[in-house]
Design goal:
The chain is α+β, with helices and mostly antiparallel strands and 317 residues long. The chain has a domain of 140 residues: Mannose-Binding Protein A, subunit A (Mannose-Binding Protein A, Chain A), CATH 3.10.100.10. 57% of the residues lie in helices and 10% in strands. It has four helices and eight strands; from the N terminus they run ααββαβαβββββ. Strands 1, 2, 3, 4, 5, 6, 7 and 8 form an eight-stranded mixed beta sheet that branches. A hairpin with a 2-residue loop joins β1 and β2. α2 crosses α4. It is rod-shaped, with a radius of gyration of 68 Å. Pfam families: Lectin_C (PF00059).
């Protein structure tokens, strides 16, 4: 037993010498103790720590799998959306192509319609020009007919005198419808007032013109229109006729006492603008607008009228 005790003492002293040498500091001693404790702790806790690591790894894998699944699902959704978008783009492109084709067709139709309208407008313009041309020809033909009718009437008026002799009207007089007319056309005869012109006619055994029919008026209107001097104004180109309203204003009466109901007045006439009591005939294109009232003291040309008779005297100026 003493040997055992000695051995124990020997080991203890040896351990103490190994474990707590005199030259080791207190800090180194603490470090060694902590290291030994850690070694003991690791040796005692190793199996449980390993299990926890597996659990953490499994959870991490599960989370990673879930994340990958979510990513996969997202990619699938994105792919589906992308595919749908591609289909949508394709559909839109198809619709745009259809609309473009429709637009092109409509544009072509519009162009053709414009061409047709332009062609129709041109055709209508030509028709209008042709109508205007025909209207002008119609007016010319109407004038020609009126002139022809007047010439026929004048020729017919000469028939009785041709049978009885050609000296029934005085020299310088014109026969129309079996009546003799004197037109004061010569510049040797000065223009005169209405009363002086009537005195001239009286000296020739006649009187100022009295119009009894439309045919007579048309023939005389044509005569003074053909004899008009273009160098003179219209106001100086009138011819006194035997018509006035000196007795009753507005009551126009011929020298033979016949009252005029309508007559062949110009538009707006008679207007008695300057105390105009005598009537004159003017060479207008429209014979139905050839009369004007005028002051009786104006100096104008005149027309005398008389029935035919055998020539027995000369013209007295």
């Amino acid at each position: 037993m003493e040997d055992n005790g000695n051995n124990a003492g020997f080991f203890e002293s040896t351990y103490n010498k190994l474990t707590y040498p005199e030259d080791i500091s207190e800090d180194d001693h603490s470090f060694n103790l902590n290291q030994e404790r850690q070694q003991v702790s690791l040796s005692t806790m190793w199996p449980g720590s390993r299990l926890n690591r597996y659990k953490v790894l499994a959870v991490s894998l599960a989370v990673l799998a879930a994340f990958l699944l979510a990513v996969d699902i997202g990619l699938g959704v994105y792919y589906l959306r992308l595919s749908y978008g591609n289909h949508l783009v394709t559909d839109i492109s198809t619709e745009i192509a259809k609309l473009q084709a429709t637009y092109n067709t409509a544009l072509q139709s519009k162009t053709e319609a414009k061409q047709e309208v332009a062609k129709e407008i041109k055709s209508q313009q030509i028709t209008k020009w042709e109508l205007d041309h025909l209207n002008r020809r119609k007016k010319d033909n109407e004038k020609l007919i009126d002139r022809t009718e007047m010439e026929i009437a004048m020729l017919e008026s000469h028939m009785p005198m041709l049978k009885e002799g050609c000296r029934q009207c005085l020299p310088g007089w014109t026969v129309i419808n079996s009546m003799c007319y004197f037109f004061a056309l010569s510049e040797e005869l000065s223009r005169r007032s209405w009363m002086d012109a009537r005195h001239f006619c009286k000296r020739q055994g006649s009187d100022l013109l009295v119009i009894n029919s439309r045919e007579e008026h048309m023939a005389l209107a044509e005569m003074i229109k053909m004899s008009r001097d273009p160098s003179r104004s219209m106001s100086q180109s009138g011819f006194w006729i035997g018509l006035r309203d000196a007795d009753v204003e507005g009551s126009w009466t011929w020298l033979d006492g016949t009252r005029v109901e309508e007559g062949y007045w110009n538009i707006g006439e008679p207007n008695n603008q300057n105390n105009e009591d005598c009537a004159a005939m003017y060479p207008r294109d429209n014979p139905f607008n050839s009369w004007n009232d005028a002051p009786c003291n104006w100096n104008l040309k005149w027309i005398c009228e008389r029935t035919p008779r055998p020539f027995s005297s000369s013209l007295n100026v």
